[in-house]
Design goal:
The protein is mainly alpha-helical. It is 57% helix and 5% strand. It is built from 28 helices and 5 strands. Strand 4 and strand 5 form a beta hairpin. Helix 6 packs parallel to helix 9 and helix 23 crosses helix 24. The longest helix has 28 residues.
Length: 748
């Protein structure tokens, strides 16, 4: 149909729609004059001027600009200057900063969260790769499990050999004033580390396994925050994780020790719990796994995890009562997973040692006097006031800075921040923000942590592990403050600009945490090479067999001894320990019951070079063979630590003990001097430790009673120089005659 010529416009018919007065000509169709309306229109006044028709040429230029041409055409509209080209590169920084400081909108509603599937996934992957990369670097560089980590490796090896593990390593709960021994709640960490131990060995396997656990904690925490609140919240969470790694040291990312391994997982637990009670019931199985791991890892996290479990249980009951849509599949999976993860703990409680009952008695006993609320509140202020505790480097073995007073200025700032945190929580609650569950849970965690700290006695407060909440709790408080600040800022600035700022801060935090791998020395690192040397020398001197293992010296008990025992067992040695209360850390099958009388003993002895302790060790082991020796420089400074492994035989011990007994029992012998008695007592006590595992408890008590008479003899000789040996023997040795008979029977 040919259009009418412009000189004779056709009046609109009643059946045809009216042409829009704002319609603009396009480049494909020539401009058509506007038809006159059927009714008379008012004359234009000074305030109402008729609009000028756009020229086809201008319309064509506008269409070309919007169709994807690479260069914009300057506007030729009358009365407007030519459009300047948009700045690029560094020239765009200035306008961007000016836009960032200019209010964007003033709506009471925050901007919708930023979501992009590819970017969300990439953010989670980056978060998970950081601990993996740090753990791999440690494994390649020769990290070795020492101290408690070696004991963890030993227990994981037992699991792979078929031993059922029902609890964690021993706790220091008996130091709370109750005297009740207990273990950490559960063995879940051992089971998670077992595949890595099987594939990569003790040292690399533990480092990579711990890194994988922390990678899961980082990834789940960032994923849930991004899923619930957008990329800004996810990026801020990643930054908090990075700064927390900086404060505790990058070694925490691959350290399997119980007090460290659940630090990041505890933060993730709070995040997942907030998502679940916020209505995301599909995450209930994730909550069960994370909560089970955190609670079983260490006694410190019980005060954190148990209240969160109760909160989720109450929220679930309320949701079911209100007939809210709770997926049945998630409920069934959560129930099944929970039963599997807690089955070993239940077995131990009803058919084993009753460890859960011991933990409950430890915390409910009246003998466990605490430091009080003032101490706990001081720790809270110390954890959040600038620089917050989680952002302050604590050094390789920690320091006691968390016990110091924050000072007047820091205390004032900390109180202001706590008030700001309370105001932020109130704002979120009043506005029914999506962050409300997270903020409420952080309040609950802080209150539970303060109460737990107020119940700690003096001996327990000097361990950073017992106050780990100062790091994680401070990080959670600052996470809430940051997300609330970002939520408010979206009412003034573009969300994309805030995401860029949050990403820059997160990158700085992650870089600080990851690079602390090179700037912070690892605890016990100087002993890594020493243990390798000892293991090599022992394997050269001894054939695999059964040996009693004893420790002398603090470094032997806490540092060098456990990895040496672990490696000897892996190399085919039947190593048995007899260490007293510390025995349960090794497992019942490694603790000595009663061994044959000819079982040799290995004494792992440590002492600072030139110290009296080292001289005493050398005197007590003078007749034993040194089969391995090395030294290392302690991380805290001071003289080098000498490490020796002695081979002690029962024959030599019997000879020394029986000689002492005969000399004391001979009524015609000369009276020994005080120095002779002291030397005899030192040698006899040392030899007794060699043969002790071959004795029954009654026999051991008889010999100990015999040796206990020697200090009494020294005291009586000093007080009464006229006392004869015969009179002394009649008074003291009658009670020790059973011990003499045991020695005669044992060593004949």
């Amino acid at each position: 149909m040919t259009p009418d010529p412009p000189s004779k416009p056709k009046p609109p018919s009643k059946t045809q729609p009216k042409a829009s007065p704002k319609a603009r000509p396009t480049s494909r169709q020539p401009a058509r004059p506007q038809p006159k309306p059927p009714t008379s229109k008012p004359r234009p006044t000074s305030k109402q001027q008729p609009k000028q028709q756009a020229k086809p040429k201008e319309a064509g230029a506008r269409t070309a600009r919007s169709s994807g041409s690479t260069r914009s055409t300057p506007s030729t509209r009358p009365g407007r200057p030519a459009r300047r080209p948009r700045p690029t590169g560094l020239a765009a920084v200035g306008p961007w900063l000016r836009r960032l400081g200019r209010p964007r909108r003033r709506s009471d509603e925050p901007a919708p969260p930023i979501h992009d599937k590819q970017r969300d996934r990439a953010l989670v992957v980056v978060a998970a790769l950081i601990p993996i990369a740090v753990g791999a670097a440690a494994a390649i560089s020769g990290w070795r499990a020492t101290g408690d980590n070696a004991l963890i490796g030993l227990r994981v090896s037992d699991l792979l050999r078929g031993h059922l593990l029902t609890s964690g390593l021993p706790t220091t709960g008996e130091n709370f004033g109750t005297g009740i021994t207990s273990n950490h709640p559960g063995p879940l960490g051992f089971y998670l580390l077992a595949p890595f131990r099987l594939v990569y060995g003790v040292n690399a396997g533990l480092a990579l396994g711990a890194a994988a656990i922390n990678a899961a904690a980082w990834g789940i925490g960032v994923w849930v925050m991004t899923r619930r609140h957008g990329q800004i919240a996810g990026v801020l969470t990643l930054g908090i994780f990075g700064v927390l790694a900086y404060g505790l040291g990058a070694h925490i990312l691959y350290d399997p020790i119980s007090s460290n391994i659940a630090a990041f997982a505890s933060v993730t637990l709070v995040i997942v719990t907030a998502a679940v009670i916020g209505g995301d019931w599909k995450l209930l199985p994730v909550f069960v796994v994370v909560a089970s791991y955190v609670i079983q890892a260490h006694l410190t996290y019980v005060a954190l995890g148990v209240p969160l479990v109760l909160v989720v249980a109450v929220a679930l009951v309320v949701a079911l009562a209100k007939k809210q849509p709770v997926p049945l599949r998630s409920l069934l999976i959560s129930l099944g997973v929970g039963l599997v993860l807690w089955a070993p703990v239940f077995w131990d409680q009803f058919f084993g040692t009753g460890n859960i009952s011991s933990i409950i008695r430890t915390f409910t006993s009246e003998d466990a006097g605490g430091k009080g609320f003032g101490f706990a509140f001081g720790r809270l202020v110390h954890s959040v006031s600038p620089v917050p505790m989680f952002a302050r480097p604590t050094g390789p073995i920690g320091n006691l800075g968390f016990l110091e007073a924050a000072g007047g200025v820091r205390t004032a700032i900390g109180v202001v921040l706590l008030l700001a945190f309370a105001a932020a929580v109130w704002h979120l609650w009043r506005t029914r923000s999506a962050y409300r569950p997270l903020a409420g849970l952080v309040v609950l965690v802080v209150l539970a942590s303060v109460y737990s700290a107020s119940q700690l006695p003096d001996p327990a407060t000097v361990k950073a592990a017992n106050l780990r909440w100062m790091w994680t709790g401070g990080a959670l408080v600052w996470l809430v403050l940051l997300v609330v600040a970002a939520d408010l800022a979206t009412r003034w600035w573009r969300a994309a600009d805030l995401l860029a700022v949050a990403a820059c801060l997160a990158v700085l935090g992650v870089l600080a945490g990851a690079t602390s791998y090179w700037t912070v020395e690892v605890r016990d690192e100087p002993a890594f090479r020493a243990v390798d040397t000892l293991v090599s020398q022992v394997n050269e001197k001894l054939e695999p067999g059964t040996f009693i293992v004893k420790y002398q010296g603090e470094d032997a008990l806490l540092n060098v001894g456990p990895p040496l025992v672990t490696d000897l067992i892996d190399d085919g040695f039947d190593a048995r320990v007899s260490l007293g209360p510390f025995d349960r850390a090794y497992g019942d099958h490694i603790v000595t019951k009663r061994l044959p009388q000819n079982t040799p003993a290995l004494f792992i002895a440590t002492g600072a070079e030139g110290s009296d302790a080292l001289k005493d060790i050398e005197a007590s082991r003078a007749t034993d063979e040194v089969i391995a020796e090395t030294r290392f420089d302690p991380l805290t400074g001071g003289p080098p630590v000498i490490v020796r492994v002695y081979l002690a035989k029962v024959e030599v011990a019997c000879e020394r003990l029986t000689g002492l007994a005969k000399e004391l029992a001979d009524p015609n012998g000369e009276r020994p001097g005080a120095e002779v008695l002291e030397d005899m007592n030192t040698l006899a006590s040392a030899r007794l430790t060699t043969i002790a595992p071959t004795l029954t408890p009654e026999e051991l008590a008889s010999i100990q009673q015999l040796l206990a008479q020697i200090p009494a003899m020294q005291q009586q000789f000093t007080e009464n120089p006229e006392l004869t040996l015969q009179e002394l023997q009649v008074e003291n040795l009658q009670s020790a005659i059973d011990g003499i008979q045991v020695l005669v029977d044992l060593c004949s």
